[in-house]
Amino acid sequence: MKTISGYILFRAALLMGAIAISGVPATFAQTVDSGQNALGKSTIEPAYDDANGSVIYLLTPDKAPLPSNANSAATAPLYLVVYPLGSTIDANTLNCTPTNCDHVNVLPFPDPDYGALPGTSQVCTDFNGGSPCSLVKGHDHLVGIPPTGDFNVAWAVKLVFFTSAAFTDHAINTHITTAAQIWALVHSGDAVVADTPILFNCSKVSESTYDRGTPVVINFP
Hints:
Order of helices and strands: HEEEEEEHEEHHEEHE
Number of helices: 5
Number of domains: 1
Helix content: 10-25%
Structural class: alpha+beta
Number of strands: 11
Radius of gyration: 16 Å
């Protein structure tokens, strides 16, 4: 079985510049929202409050600097949980799928458990700069919200992905909506949290603002 330290070392190099992200997560209320909505010169996405799993919405300006110019004291973590195709979780309940968000359409490195694709694959060429990758069902975003969490305008993206053990014990079928769930899976050896170079700006907005936007549609193979 793969070790966590091995994952972190291998991913660190592959993640540099591999992920482009803009907004955030989705669902806890009566309606489950999935995907980015474009509104004016910005995009809005659903996200989870990582303390209690409730849904929030984050807006990212189209011209926001990437990476953000914020100093470390003005940043907070955003946990981006990537689900494999084999997960039984309904894709429509995920914050993003490869066809409704413009970021992390694939796992940006080849993973034999997720299902590695050759670097010559059209999917990898189009969505991962020609580098080897793996297909995914979709992903969720988890962030801290006051008064229980760490919230800032600048977000440092932490990629959360499943280990081989999670495919064996079916942890890949767990819909993660809180930070407590993430760290429980990490401690059990079912998930890895890896730093990425992505630091971006966004702000919290209302569900009604999200609803006024136009859904983003991605031509994903």
